Amino acid sequence: MEKRTRTLSVAISSLFMFSFVCFVKGSLSFNFYAASCPSAELIIRDTVSSFSSTDPSIPGKLLRLVFHDCFVEGCDASLMLQGNNTEQSDPGNRSVGGFSVIDSAKRVLEKFCPGTVSCADIIAMAARDAVEIAGGPRIMIPTGRRDGMVSLASNVRPNIVDTSFSMDEMVQLFASKGLSLLDLVVLSGAHTIGTAHCSSFRDRFEEDSRGKLMLADKTLDSDYAKVLMEECPSGVQPSVKVNNDPQTSLVFDNMYYQNLLAHKGLFQSDSVLISNDSTRILVEDFANDQDLFFQNWAQSFLKLTSVGVKSGDVGEIRISCASTNA
Predict the structure, then answer these.
(1) Which residues are catalytic?
(2) What single-letter DSSP state applies at residue 308?
(3) What is the DSSP string of 174-192?
(4) Residue 259 vs residues 200, 249, 289: alpha-carbon distances, Å
(5) Tens digit of each residue's pLDDT (9 = 90 or more) over 215-252
(6) Beta-carbon contacts of residue 66 (< 8 Å; ≥ 6 apart)
(7) 154 with 93: CB under 8 angstroms?
């Protein structure tokens, strides 16, 4: 069974790579800034590294940022735009961080290569670098994304994963972005780093008559549940967070999948991955083989950062990531 599953994963990945190369040829390209801004990738990596050295939570924030940007309007930095009723206004985005890293890299790039590197490319490359800095694989991604000019709070809720989603709801949303069941399992591995507010998994518990929390979701490991209830008791401040991964919270590894099999997935949307036969097999494969996870991560991340990209004459290259040029 294990050999058959890995063969299937490799076959799907190979088919994807052929399709992706064809796609890239028409819009994005590798080394897009080789002539116009040869130091672009180094500047972005140095910025991410500098911020991460003083704040170890930065990689997780940047990874979450790229997800929330690409799933709404495509990978076009629409999440960076500020103002009334923009994407940042939606409650689901108020806890997204890492904006200062993107803005800092953009300021440096504007000094060396004015009006050349898009905020959308900075977000994608910063997330890519964040994964490597946290211990994950180093991968190449194509560039040439342009920045969008539309950012509406009303577009957020229908396009991002809620932590209480069922398997069917997640599959449907990922499919709408051109992402497969394999991509869903692989990209869920992003939860191997980062933090979450207590409210994001509150639905897995209930209060008794005395206001004390009790475990409602019996799929969650009882000992892990006790730890969560201690860290997030009833009436806890909204700002309190816990680690997505209770084992190696700052390291991008395959521990997320091992936690799932031990019934220690933080969100309901994590736990459902082992309640489905097709996804459980993949979870087991990645839990047993970190290299396999990393190989698949590289390909699924390429697909994620290519969702709805704008290129050519569509969009613009913003001077400031917080506002359009007009």
Answers:
(1) 68
(2) T
(3) HHHTT--HHHHHHHHGGGG
(4) 18, 12, 14
(5) 888 899 999 999 999 999 988 998 899 999 999 999 99
(6) 75, 123, 124, 126, 127, 304, 305
(7) no
What residue segments make up the domains of the chain, in order of their start?
2-192+277-304
Q: Is 74 labeled as ligand-binding?
A: yes
> Contact at 8 Å (CB) between 171 and 162?
no
Query: Could you identify the residue written with the tokens 């692989």?
Result: 186
Q: For residue 140, list its beta bridge partners.
A: none
User: Any known ligand binding at 76?
Assistant: yes
Does 103 belong to an annotated binding site? no
CB atoms within 10 A of CB 299: 20
Residue 95 token pair? 């806890």
> Which amino acid, one-letter code, is at 144?
G
Phi, psi of 143 (to 5 degrees): -130, 180
Q: Is 285 annotated as a binding residue?
A: no
Q: What is the CATH number of domain 2-192+277-304?
A: 1.10.520.10
pTM comes to: 0.91
